[in-house]
Predict the 3D structure of the following.
Amino acid sequence: MAGERLLLRHDRVARLVHLGAAILIIALVVSGFGLAGLMPDPVASLLGGHLVFDTTHTLFGFVFSIALMLLPPLMPTRTRCLVRDVTDFHRPDIHWPLAFLRFSLHPERRRPAHHKGRFDPAQRVIFLGLGISLVLLVVSGLVLSLIPPSARVLLAWAVRIHIFATVMLLVCASIHVLAGSGLLPTHRGVTRAMFGSGRVRLSLARRLWPQWARIEATESDLVDPDPEVGTVGGEIVDPSLEDPP
């Protein structure tokens, strides 16, 4: 494949916030599994046991809760844009899943499934699920940590909500990781958007986010090339995408 034009999908700040959130969530899930006794005893002992799990889960839980509450006031524009993009549903989105499946099965005979917005309809549903589950986890976790043991009914409901939100988070996060891993044929190369230069191939963007790609392609000349990426004829080009001689 010849050097292909790249579009900036996520800037450095977005990638760092995503990485920090991922690390905290992984630590909370692992320590939570340890507290719930869902981890093999040898592994639990190797990681420090119940006391370490309890301390880690409580500490990281407070850190994540504070970060989540500070994000809107510290990054109001980014937060507002994210909420807008995630909740930007349209009536034609109902037909998108079937259209995308048809395209995935016969990409040579069908055009990419069209939708409006920065995220496709499936992404929006997953991100909504992640957001709701994280809010429920934070609220129920704070109740479990701060409410006295005498409030048994409230604590019992907090435990139920915490477990439900954890399952919801794991389901949504698993789908998100699968899509973001680039293992799916339709998503090859998408990993670099969050864990690389932040840029994606123009052909990939047109396949997954057609309207966003069309808008960004007309404005990409305003974006400075990444230090790891060169330019050819005024277009951003990734040397790793060049054909071997």
